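Posted in: Protein Modeling Q&A

I'm a second-year student putting together a small comparison for a lab meeting, and my supervisor asked me to include a predicted structure for VOC family protein. I've never done this before, so apologies if this is the wrong subforum. The sequence is pasted below exactly as I got it from our records. If anyone can share the C-alpha cell output, I'd also love a short note on what stands out.
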Amino acid sequence: MSGDIVFFDLPGKDSAATAKFWESLFGWKFKEGNFPGYSMIHGPTPMGGSAHGDTSKFPRVYFGVDDLNGAIERVRELGGTAGEPVTIPAGRFANCVDDQGVEFSIFQAAAE
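Accepted answer (user: helix_wrangler)
Welcome! Here is the predicted structure, written out as C-alpha cells:
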C-alpha cells in the first residue's frame, strides 16, 4: 500500500467561477471530464478534478493503494469508515473517514 497522493477533487458550487479562480491562480486548465458534471484539471501533479455543484468546503485527496478491498478492510479495522467501491474508467475508489472524522479517498488504478 503506497499511500501516495494520486488525485484530488476541488469542490465548486459554480463551475465557471471555480475554473476561473484556479486557472488565474496557477494557470491550470479545466476541461470536461469523462462523465457529465465533472471537469478534469490539467496542470498540477497529480492531476485533479472538480465536480460541478459540489458544496464541500475542502479538497478531497485520493491515496493510491495496490489492493482496494484490502485497504477498505484495513480502514475499518482501524476504526474508520469506508464506503462501497466505485468503478470509473481509470480504476476504483472508495470514500473514507478516519477515526477522527477526516474525509479522504483511496484509489486503485485499473490494470493496464
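A couple of things worth pointing out for your meeting: Strands lie at 5-12, 29-32, 38-42, 48-52, 60-64, 81-82, 86-88, 91-97, 103-109. DSSP finds two helices and nine strands in the chain.
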